[in-house]
Amino acid sequence: MGIFDRLANVWKGFLSLWISDIENKNPEAVYEAAIEERIKKHRELKKAVSGIVYLRNKTQTELEAKEKELAEINVQIPVAVEEGEDEAALVLIERRDSLTSSIAGLRMELEKVSAQAEDAKEGLITFQAEIEKLKREKEEMLAKRANAEARIQIRETLDGLSTDADIKALDNVRESIHKIQAEADVSTEIGAESLDAKLKKIKGKAATASARNELDEMKKQMAARKSGAAEAAAGVKKTM
């Protein structure tokens, strides 16, 4: 093998790999091309089948015409004989024999063409079914590819997340929550020691002390009145 042949083989190898890579990256285009090619062949096959069906129909029509003519001649021959028209009778007999031979050949041809037409139609239907099957396969395979790619992407995303990073993120969240809780506690503690809180507390104690002083004063007045009433009662008794 010469160097040019070897270079040609290498180039063919690279070209094949390049085409395969393009096909792998564009499966939908590959399916569409295959479907389109089958549709094209289906049109060609349909045209061929139509030719066979046309030949069958033509043969059928020709056979029916000759059978009709033969039936008419079979009626005419006895009439010609009865009328003494021997020459006409001979012509009709010859025509009858020719028609009989032609009809036999046409029947054989029609049987053969009809069988070919039926086979061709079955092949056409089968080919159409294959096209529909390929269309369904395209949808199923593209769906499987999309599903697989999505699963791979999810897996790669999950694999790219470090466990240490997850733990660190959780620790940061926990620490942030604890800080917020501490701020709330500080606010409560500072509020309890604030000047307003102290004034409120003093005001409350003062109100309580004032009320108690008022209560004590009321008790003293009541006791004084009771004592005065008792002394008055005692003076009345002495006078009597």
Provide a compact summary of the structure.
The protein has 240 residues and is mainly alpha-helical.
Contiguous helical run count: 5
According to CATH, what is the class of the largest domain? Mainly Alpha
Gross CATH architecture of the largest domain:
Orthogonal Bundle
What's the main sheet like? none
Query: How would you state the average pLDDT, rounded?
Result: 77
User: Total number of β-strand segments?
Assistant: 0
Model regions low in confidence, pLDDT < 50 over at least 5 residues: 14-19
Number of separate domains: 2
Task: Give your account of this protein's structure.
With 240 residues, the protein is mainly alpha-helical. It has 2 domains: 3-160, Helix Hairpins (Orthogonal Bundle), CATH 1.10.287; 170-239. It has 5 helices and no strands. The protein has helices at 3-25, 27-82, 86-159, 163-193, 195-239. The longest helix has 74 residues, at 86-159. The chain is rod-shaped and about 190 Å long. Mean pLDDT is 77; it is low at 14-19.
